[in-house]
Amino acid sequence: DGEVWTFSVRPFNWPLPAHTIQVNYDGFAEDIEVGDELLVDGGMVRFEVIEKFGPDVKCCCIDPGLLLPRANLTFRRQGRLVREKNAMLPTISSKDWLDIDFGISEGVDFIAISFVKSAEVIQHLKSYLAARSRDR
């Protein structure tokens, strides 16, 4: 509650920077305005837009909750629905990256990913696993 998060359409190396949510539609920063309310999955988590800079949007969490992959995004402006979008979060969430690190430390034999949207997701995971195995 009250934490500032950055929503961005920019591609990032994995894992994402802290308090960053990758949005997967290009018009996101253009569609939203400072002061808009951003609802995730119909209000399971709520943010207020406090700043826009390029492809990034800074938001203050006003009602915390669980952020899940493939969530639905709704913008509200002055109490009215402005836009609704599907699939805003990445396939591999920040919680998933923590679980992957834990699995690596425990020596798991394989890692499965559900709802993969692109080959890039698999490539990022493979690169991450290769780098982590070199570090061990």
Descriptive overview:
Belongs to the pyruvate kinase family. Its cofactor is K(+). Its EC number is 2.7.1.40. Pathway: Carbohydrate degradation; glycolysis; pyruvate from D-glyceraldehyde 3-phosphate: step 5/5. By secondary structure, this protein is of the alpha+beta class. Helix content is 25%, strand content 29%. It has 3 helices and 7 strands; from the N terminus they run E-E-H-E-E-E-E-E-H-H. The protein has a 7-stranded mixed beta sheet with strand order 2-1-5-4-3-6-7. Strand 3 and strand 4 form a beta hairpin. The longest helix is centred in the last third of the chain and has 17 residues. It starts with a strand and ends with a helix.
Give a short synopsis of this structure.
Residues 19-130 form the Pyruvate kinase barrel domain. The protein contains three helices and seven strands; from the N terminus they run ββαβββββαα.
List its traits:
2 domains, 3 helices, 136 residues, alpha+beta, M1 Pyruvate Kinase, Domain 3, elongated, seven-stranded mixed β-sheet, single chain, 7 strands
Task: Explain the layout of strands and helices.
Layout: E1 4-8, E2 20-22, H1 28-31, E3 37-40, E4 45-53, E5 56-63, E6 73-77, E7 80-85, H2 94-106, H3 119-135
Parallel strand pairs: 1-2
Antiparallel strand pairs: 1-5, 3-4, 3-6, 4-5, 6-7
